[in-house]
Amino acid sequence: MNATDFFDATAKSYDPTAGLRIGQHWYNSLARVRPDIAGKLIGTPTDPFYKDFVPTDFIRFVMDSWGEEQ
């Protein structure tokens, strides 16, 4: 899976009736496929977990980090 596939799959899999914030869904999805990247986001302003949206900085960070060794 590349970053584009991740973004596409995560956007399509969001279920607003599941009781998760949008940012929480995106963070959890990232943690499942790239825990190395997700771990770098915890507690930073880029961390989307507690947000009701996906910050542009999150998208940029994931795109920039995706090519790093897993």
Structure description:
This protein is mainly α and 70 residues long. It has one domain (3-10, 19-65). Helices cover 57% and strands 0% of the residues. The protein is built from four helices and no strands. It has helices at 3-13, 22-33, 35-41, 56-65. Helix 2 crosses helix 3 (35-41). The longest helix is centred in the middle third of the chain and has 12 residues, at 22-33. It is globular, with a radius of gyration of 11 Å. The protein starts with a helix and ends in a 5-residue tail after the last helix.
Question: Would you tell me the overall average pLDDT?
Answer: 94
The radius of gyration is: 11 Å
**Could you say which structural class the secondary elements and strand pairing correspond to?**
mainly alpha
Question: What kind of oligomer do you see?
Answer: single chain
Enumerate how many helices there are, as a single number.
4
| Whole-number total of structural domains | 1
Number of strands: 0
Task: Give the uncertain stretches in residue-range form.
Answer: none
The H-and-E topology, N to C, reads as HHHH
Short account of what is shown:
With 70 residues, the protein is mainly α. 57% of the residues lie in helices and 0% in strands.
Give the helices and strands, then pairings.
Elements: H1 3-13, H2 22-33, H3 35-41, H4 56-65
